Target: Trk system potassium uptake protein TrkA
Amino acid sequence: MHIVIMGCGRVGSTLAHILEDSGHSVAIIDRDPQAFRRLRAGFRGRRVTGVGFDRDVLEEAGIESAAAYVAVSSGDNSNIISARVARETFGVDNVVARIYDSRRAEVYQRLGIPTVATVRWTADQILRRVLPEGAEPLWRDPTGTVTLAEVAYHQGWIGTRTKKVQELAATRVAFVNRMGEALLPKDDTVLQEGDILHVIAADTDMDRINKVLSSAPEEESH
Model:
């Protein structure tokens, strides 16, 4: 696929390298030509100087053949405007914009632009590392309604089928991390020692789920 990235900062340059290593063609846009110094010497993609909401700049970057557009510059407004131009003017279906103001995420979502709220995501990642107990989110939808979380559970749940965990905790088990590998639960999947449990639920329901799982199950669950 051909992918256009706006913003050659640390995130943009890292994405460019990962995507190129995965076999995709990449064009990266930045208004500061010095920003392209972050790209490795062997980078084969296009370097386009300009702003990502300028039609000529986007066309030079190959937007008309792009399968995806990513806006990760340092400006929220620039990211959203350019993402909208990519989608509404050039018909790119897969677009994503980074923002710093998570309060505006719901507005952007209603405009049809998937967003990554940088501050909220960073805070969540830090919390997961400093608060090992309880439920810490791995992902939230832009409106903050749905959460995917890694949840600590009482040892009494070991040996319980994940189907039973869902029934007793009234939640949905998204996946189990077992020895570093993600495992999609089946009806006969049983929690084992060392499994990391991930659930997906309404954000407002996470406290209740955490409370249920922090104690041993109240009924036989084998």
Notes: The chain is about 30% helix and 25% strand. The mean pLDDT is 86. Residues 24 and 81 are 25 Å apart (CA to CA). The first helix runs from residue 10 to 21.
